Queue: 2 jobs
Job 1
Amino acid sequence: MRNLAKSLNISETDLLLWLAEHAPATELRHPADFLPAELAGQAQQALGRSPPSAPAEERVERRCAECAKLPAKAGLRVVEVGADAVCDLCGSSANKRAALAMIGAFHARGLRRLLVVGGGPGTSEDLRQLLAGEVEIRIVDGEGHRNAAKADADLRWADVVAVWSSTILSHKVSKLYTDQRASFREKLVTVPRRGVAALCMAVTEKVGAPAG
């Protein structure tokens, strides 16, 4: 009691009178328990103690049904929301949602490099933005010049090779990659549909499929 009164710079008599007026007589608790939080903080500082830390605020991420299946960061609670709400992870974008699933599949298998053969300028830029910092990507122009040596180097570089057959892709370019199917079968996947989401989903299925 003496130390508490001294730390608050008041007399023991005044402290006892205040406690007598405010502390319930029926509870057997320490007198300091009845002090206002501000005074308790002042007393702890005067006694060389740090005030108790406030509990950490729980972080919540609202996700759509598909994104709710993806892993969450430590200390983050995922709450699944309906289709009419905006997902905090993918922004309710089908392209981003498919890209996130593909990134997760790559990381789970320890893969880093994706080669895309075909695709237009718009989809190429979308892919680069969606995968930036997560998956290394090379895109082969479906109408550009490529020779067997460059194609072979591409195939050896990549962990996964997506041949985007539904886009502008000349046979002479695609043939450089598909002709080596016997040697690189485990890397090659043909994407028969247009759209970034379709490509990401096809690659995700390829990566997640059992080897053989």
Job 2
Amino acid sequence: MDGSHPPTHLRIALAAHAGNGDATVTAAEGASIAAELAPHRARIATGLLAG
């Protein structure tokens, strides 16, 4: 454990409490996310394909 992460038992408790709800992203939010990622898309794809 280090200073930037809570103890494992607290992370497990949070994950158990949070459940598995579906995330909802509006069209505007999706467009904003796509625009933010667009400049990085080629670099990410190259890295993924390189393994």
